[in-house]
Amino acid sequence: MGSKKRSTKSEAEVLEGQTDLATVDAVAVPSGKKIKMGNKSDVEMGDGVASSSSVVDSIKPMERKKKRKQLDKEKRRSNLENGEPQPKQLIVESKGNDAPEAVPVASSSSSCLPEFHINVFKDLASADSLVREAAVETMVTELQEVQEAYGRLENKDLVEGGLKLEAQKDDGLDNCASSLRYAVRRLIRGVSSSRECVRQGFALGLTALVATIPSVKVDSLLKLTVNLLEVSSSMKGQEVRDCLLGRLFAYGAIARSGRLTKEWFSDKDTHIIKEFMSALISLASKKRYLQEPSVSIILEIVEKLPAEALLGHILEAPGVPQWFEEAVDVGNPDALLLALKIHEKTSIDGKVSKLLPSPFSPSKLFSADYLSSISNCLKESTFCQPRVHSLWPVLVNILLPDTVLQAEDAASASNSLKKHKKGRKSSSSEEEIANNVQSFCDVVIERSLLLSSHDRKHLAFDILLLLVPRLPSSFIPVVLSSKVVQCLMDILSTKDSWLYKVAQHFLKELLDWVRNDDVRRVAVIVAFQKHSSGKFDCITKTKTVKDLMAEFKTETGCMLFVQNLINLFLDEGHASEEPSDQSQTTDENSEMGSIEDKDSVGIMGNGDFLKGWVIESVSSVLKHLKLDPEAKFRVQREILKFLSVQGLFSASLGNEVTSFELQEKFRWPKATTSTALCKMCIEQLQSLLASVQKVEEPRSLANALEPNDLGSYFMRFFSTLRNIPSVSLFRTLSDEDKQSVTKLLEMESKLYKEERNCGLGNDANKLHALRYLLILLLLQVLLQPGEFCDAASELIICCKKAFAASDDPDSSGDESNGDAAPELMDVLVDTLLSLLPQSSAPMRSAIEQVFRYFCGDVTNDGLLRMLRIIKKDLKPARHQEAGSEDDDDDDDLLGIEEDEDIDEAETGETADSDEQSEDSEAVVGGEGDDKDLPEDSDESDGGMDDDAMFRMDTYIAQIFKEKKNQAGGETAQSQLVLFKLRVLSLLEIYLHENRGKPEVLTVYSHLAQAFVNPHTTEGSEQLEQRIWGIIQRKVFKEKKLPKDDSMPLSTLESLLEKNLKLASKPFKRKKSASTLSKKKLTASLNRYKMVVSLAQNSTYWVLKIIEARNFSDAELQGVFGLLQAILEGYFGSKKSQVKSGFLKEIFKRNPRIGHQLFGFLLENCGNAKSDFRRVEALDLVIEVLKSQVPMNPNESNREAAKKFLKSHLQNLGRLIETLVTKMPEKKSRKTEVHKCCDKIFQMITSLDLTKTFLKCLGPDALSACESQLGPVFLKLKNLN
């Protein structure tokens, strides 16, 4: 054997040298012939022996030994051939660069074999698949012709004699021509090459050759493959790998050729299949990476062979039974795969008892015991990652057959919407599948893979992705079990995790799968939240659940989701037994119901946290949904019933109650619902009702029998449940609270009837708003017992008086008090204000709705109470003396310039009482409210009797009391700010609904005082910005102006004077300011700028009101005088803070003022004490001239403009004379003077007043104009 192997290897070296198939190998030729090897130089062969020097030069040192052996062999062959007649040998000829290489084969003296071109082997290694396929076709065709010609020869020995170029005497290819032998050997060696595309091409060639030419025997190929690709101890790792892979490809070629199947059909007792199986199993045992491809080759044969052959030839092949026997112990997934695939074709019970259950059935295959026994096989399938082993698709196909699943999924979708069903009867096959899936996920996924290495966790998610596309919706809770969800959350919570991208991919594929199916989406959301205690998004730092919830588009989907949430809430076993170790807190990415501001957050367990998420999410279903009103009402009704039952009531006996009146059964969790969860239900119930009221359409169904009024439905539902003996409220109420609840129910019922009877209109809106306020107040009484009884009583009284029914005996009795009774609207306003401090957001929304419809009837006293809340100081000044706020407004104004210090107040310094309110009184004082307040009233409590004062103090006291009882709560000051913000919302509504009314001035004056007074907004930028925004939007930018003729001009003049003085007030820094931080000084300066801006905008607004009243010039002398005084200060004092832009805007908006003050402006501009002020004032001059003297006057206004300008030519001349004689030195100011003069000259020229103007200039002025103004003045002079 040893000599034979050496001989075989020697021939391989002679023919090819190496397995590098791109190089054309040298072959022996007869004496005198040439051989050309690729691009190498021709090697002259003399007497069969090449020149040794040429060989040495052309090859590497490591190849010399091989080449020497080749030459020796050729020499021996040549000697042998010289002793007998020689036929033609296999010849490699070169007839030019492009001539094909041919291998003529010896024949008899009269003929020769067809040629075989060995250049096809180069094409077999091409990277182009089309080239490889063409080369295979050419090779097979030529070799088939050669073999056919060889078969027709009578004396084959004559051809063979001495020419066994590539053959061994015992290689098994005795009946093959030399060219065919050569090709077979070369193809077998070629499949062991690791070069690009070589294995593919040569394996394809070998497959086609074996399939086409029967002369190539399979048993010979098996022996030849082992011999040519033998692994020796001297081989390195890469060489060993190439040889083993070469065998694998060779065996694959034999299997794909179909020869094994033909052999069996021709002889059913053939041993070839067994030999082939034995060889493959032996190869698979050598290296792990050969195992799966070897089995895949066997599977190709299994697919082609009949069942009879499988039992006798595959399973009984030498080594196969032992291989199956050891599979479970060593963990061989490929043996399990092969056993399953064979079992698909024929029963093999008892043949592989350890691998497959006997008798075989899916239920036994997926039983917990069996899966545990083969767990090693399943775990070891990770070696082929990232590819999923072929075993898993086979198992999944057995686990979830397609035909059963389609029926199951359709049935689950149709039955998922049925409420309160224990379940539907399933067929035995469906139950079996469900049990199999449960067992598979439990044993394989959870206990075997998820508890193991990262690779096996990766495999677990890959297997789940195989299951998902075939999974019925009813199986989702089984697959997305607690351990799977926990593992997914733990991975996604850490971005640095090795499996993070794996988990991301799994989540993405899962979400794509549920995207268009509501049933699947609901099941996935419930699974995620159930096993994460409602914190999936929070822990994974994603928006998965939130985005899934936003994708419901239909009523069916919403109802299904709501029902599943209710079931989740009622399910006692929902809490995960293995909570994640991640943070249990929510963040900004948490899903729809992030639980905030609840007293129980800190002490909530996982169960309560999940229930809290259910409560908040169930009411958020409709947030992104657009449904028709009928469908939306049905969904809202289901949500309302759930929140009402779980939040307001509890069952006295058991946890189920049936209402015969409602024809419905209600359930509660077995464990008592905590008070915190009940409060959450009530709050969400309030939010639901408030949102309905906001978006509710006009009540077009006012006379229908059953309008879609959710509030009315709730009150009836509440009353019905309350009257069931076995149902009680979730908390015990005091007698006073019970009475309040009863009265609220009765009053709501009356208002509902009244609303139905009055049809559409403002009264219906008022009734509707009051009804919803009563409903929300009832819930507030249950939420905070003992705190809203008084407010409820007052609101009920207001409802009685506002809509006294003719059959109401109480209404006539209330009217008998006459004038002694307070105004209805005053009581209503007081009641609304008393509800604001402690009310929730939905309550405030209802209060605002009521106020919106009633604000047109609010009295002055009620309005002033609201305004004084806004003016309440957040930080009262020290040393405040009684009556210090009663000073007259004019007295306050006397100290503006001297005592005002915005810095100190803003930066937190303590100020005296006379400093804290100066700004506010400077903006607007008592005159603005003369029409509303008695003359002897002061600004803080004027018009308020003792009761009113007590009520306002009560509001503030409620705030203090509320936070005093809350440990760690916010300060009373911050609560007062919050209360002010809520009152501001009412005032904004009031301004919107009363546009153009004189009360707007009252609201404005108080808001302006509150804004300017630093203690009113102390420490609250939000409050300051809110007041600023309301004044800007609802007062200054409002198109409708207060035009009531009853408003005296003196009031407007006083308001204008105060705003002008505040706009001109300088920014002062006291000595203490030097110690303040830069940040505080910047804040003070910014506030000063805002106050000045407010004063300027107020001035524009007041002047706009005055202009709209159409007063005569005589009546407006006081207004002109105020503005003239401001101009005097502007020109007369360098310290004046009045901005020229402010004055310019006044002249621009009010041309009438410019017309009156133009002469005064020209005179003072010329007499200005500084060049800066004089040049700056030129903009004012030009602005007035633009409004009075247009650049292109038409006939209608030309005379008026000419008359105006002519009357001021003298003053213009003096101004220009002053400008040119006192020309500023600064270049920029000099440019401004030139521009101004040029514009004035153009206006004069356009009105033909040039000559008159020049006469107004003296000789000195003329010469100065020529020298200073140059071309500008000369142009005017030349036009004369």
Automatic annotation (TrEMBL):
Q: Does the keyword Nucleus apply?
A: yes
A Pfam entry, by short name? DNA_pol_phi
Chief site of localization: nucleus
InterPro entries tied to this protein: ARM-type_fold (IPR016024), DNA_pol_V/MYBBP1A (IPR007015)
Its domain of life reads Eukaryota
Record region (Disordered): 1-91, 575-600, 899-947
Q: Which UniProt keywords apply?
A: Nucleus
Q: Where located?
A: Nucleus
Composition bias of kind Low complexity appears in 46-58
Q: Which PANTHER family match?
A: MYB-BINDING PROTEIN 1A, MYB-BINDING PROTEIN 1A FAMILY MEMBER
Name the family the entry cites. Belongs to the MYBBP1A family.
- Name of the molecule in the record: DNA polymerase V
Source organism (scientific name): Hibiscus sabdariffa
